[in-house]
Structures are given as C-alpha cells and as structure tokens.
Amino acid sequence: MSGVTPRPPEKTWANAKLHRVYLGMKAPAGMAGLRLVWANVGYKWVRLCTPITHIKHRMRRTEWDKLSAGDRQPMGKDN
Questions:
Q1: 3-21 residue pLDDT tens
Q2: For the chain, which terminal residue's Cβ has fewer other Cβ atoms within 10 angstroms, N or C?
Q3: 3 Cβ contact partners less than 8 Å away, ≥ 6 residues apart
Q4: Count of CB atoms within 10 A of residue 33's CB?
Q5: Which stretches of the chain are assigned E, i.e. beta strand?
C-alpha cells in the first residue's frame, strides 16, 4: 500500500501508520475532509502528514481519541 501512497521522506515518519481520517474543519487548508494521512500516534500528540503534498498537522492525542472509529481507520495490516 505504501507504494501507492508514498511515506514522507523524513526519518521521523519511519514508524508512521497510514490512516483514512475524516477531520472535517478541524484541520488546516489542504487536510480538511476525508483524507489518507500518515499518522504518528504518540503519548501526548498525534502528527499527521498527507502522502503526496506533505502537508503536516499536529493535534492532541485526546482530540484524536475523540474521533469515532468511522472517522479514523487504519489502512491495511502491513503499512
């Protein structure tokens, strides 16, 4: 799956997981709505990056956890 949606080149994104996320209007321009994003889920923050345009966004882990299961779905087992 990562061949179709390239992972960001920085070393930080090596452990990121590909998710299908609906952020609505909570995200900056270019990330609002339903998107495929690479997500690094940490203890306090979740960092998001779009696959091709590399728009980056950071949100609190509590906001990430408030998203319903339908609004954030991991894509595949081996991403």
A1: 577 888 899 999 999 999 9
A2: N
A3: none
A4: 11
A5: 17-22, 34-41, 45-49, 56-60, 72-74
Cβ(59)–Cβ(66) below 8 Å: no
Residues 72 and 21: beta-carbon distance below 8 Å: yes
d(Cα 61, Cα 65) in Å, to the nearest integer? 6
* Contact indicator for 35, 24 with CB cutoff of 8 Å: no
Which pTM was predicted?
0.83
Name the token pair of 57. 């966004």
Burial string for 4-15 (b: 16+ CB within 10 Å, else e) reads: eeebbeeeebee
Tokens 């990330």 label which residue?
A: 31
